[in-house]
Amino acid sequence: MSENTLNRPLRVAVIGAGPSGFYVAESLLKQDQYPVSIDLIDRLPTPYGLVRYGVAPDHQKIKSITMQYEKIAKDPRVRFLGNVELGKDLTLDELKAHYDGIFYTVGASSDRSLGIPGENLEGSHSATEFVAWYNGHPDAADYQFNLDVSKVAVVGAGNVAIDVTRILAKNHDELFPSDIANHALDALKDSKVTDVYMLARRGVVQAKFTTKELRELGELLEADVLVLPEEVQLDPTSEVALQTSDNVVKKNVEILLEFSKKPLEGKPRRVHLRFLVSPVEILGTDHVEGLRLEKNRIDEKQNAVGTGEFETLEVGMVLRSVGYKGVPLPGVPFDTRKGVIANEGGRVVSETGTRAGEYVAGWIKRGPSGVVGSNKVCAKDTVELFLQDVPQLAKASDTAAQPSQITALLEGKNVQYVTFDHWQHLDKIEVEEGKKVGRPRVKLVKVDQMLKHLESVKI
After folding, report:
1. Helix, strand or coil for residue 246?
2. Which of 87, 181, 341, 382 minimizes the number of CB atoms within 10 Å of its CB?
3. With contact defined as beta carbons under 8 Å apart, do 103 and 10 qualify?
4. What percent of the chain has a predicted confidence (pLDDT) above 90?
5. Domains, the chain, ranges and CATH?
């Protein structure tokens, strides 16, 4: 069926209702070439993805972006279908039969490993897991982290590493006004952690965190920040790099130099910002007892090169924050080396060529880069490709393209799908529970708990 004979809106499925999914929906709504009907499908009952489960709980201002997403979700041309998993509740063949185009926007939910001995010891975790745990992600609600240790190493020098470091260093009163999950708030209240070491393999000029995040470490109520003067001294390569760096890097270097000169205030906790060190082995017999580091120098290409000089940190837990990577979806071509869905500019490709009608946007398209807003441009670019392709695409039959067909299919499989109205009911419960105790919200963290709340809701 060509688009010239299409007497109905284009039916589009967006798999993943995080920022990228909403930006794909927004771009489709804003174009005026074709009328559209969009289903935002997510395996969790909750929308917003990384904004709900990745953004730090004490960064409430960033989370206000969900108000924009809410407007998109409430557009009559858009439906949210939560608690629906691709490959389990809907097959790829079913999607292709009922939609004219499919967009994969599932983000990068896994993590990269350090690839060093001892990484599988008890007490060695990914920062991804820790972030999911304290943010109340249903997959992580039952995770256990040993906070009875006094010293923790966080490996990485990006904003996620700073978030994890900050959460570990904050006291209960600092965390309480956030929307941190109750189980994490309770566990961190009894934390014995006194020293957090954030470890960067390169120097201060090459670090990837933002100034706002860095500055926040200096504002912790109960933690001093320690920076070794010798590790913030710039080598000639970094001196040159600094001259051509943006203002963020220059400001970061300035703040780190200030930290290195600041006298300790005798606070009960300490945040150690270390540079030019690489973990080479996690030490211990059955659980983490230490971390062996090699000291580095910066070469002319700004890469870290080992010097052959080593030291050992006595730590009881290691959290690695060295990058996210995507996870394959059933039946969708995946580039295991890059950790993304195989694509050319946003069109999904397999070994035999382009997969007509299948597209990708966000981190699962390009890898984990940029901030939440970076996905807006990425989504718009992919939607433009889809609009170019529409005339040539094989379309779903008019009957199969009826929105009621998908919900009937789900109901026939006894899938308890969650609509946006349902989500707003859950949202209201969380906010009201938060008001009772003076917090932004108290998160529901178990899927069965959420679904139980919806059993008696008539929407």
Report:
1. coil
2. 87
3. no
4. 91
5. 3-109+325-418 (3.40.50.720), 113-322 (3.50.50.60)
